[in-house]
Known about the structure:
There is one protein chain. The protein has 166 residues and is mostly beta strands. The protein has one domain (11-164). 7% of the residues lie in helices and 48% in strands. The protein contains one helix and twelve strands. The chain has one helix at residues 153-164, and strands at residues 11-18, 29-33, 38-46, 49-54, 61-66, 74-79, 84-91, 101-106, 109-114, 118-121, 126-133, 139-146. A twelve-stranded antiparallel β-barrel has the order 1-2-3-4-5-6-7-8-9-10-11-12. The radius of gyration is 15 Å and the shape is globular.
Amino acid sequence: MAEDHELPTDLTTYDFFHDSSDGVNKLNRLCLDLASKRVVYYADISAGLVTVHRGDKSGPIIATSPYSQEKYSTTEIELVELGASVPVQYKRPSFRFSQGSTNFELEGKRYSWRKHTKLIEEETGTVLAVFHPLRSSAHVGSIYITAAGERRKELGIITALVILVR
């Protein structure tokens, strides 16, 4: 990917939306597969915790993380099914008006959400996912999982959902 706006052609696309169905919590997020019109992941933000479900909000919990609005800190994402805790470090941008990055390690591999838009496997430089934020009222953005990222799709979506609510 030579340019930030260029995308590979072999992508799986998911869209993130605000879920304001309860009329109260505007932070909750839906991750939809628009092709099948179904909720594939749900992020419930309440009581100081981000809880990620597979499927809708009644689905199994697959990850939890403390909810924090601190921009530059470290937080833990508990990956329930893997029985792993992943420290996620939010780094300050190098320049005043640029975006920072988010870094984490899982199973001996280092990953980085560069500028919070590209998920990269650090050792190989392989792009696993690309996130395009949108500024509409309900549609938060789209995440594109590359063929190389399919194996880590859930990790990409979970970390993107946690990053979005910071």
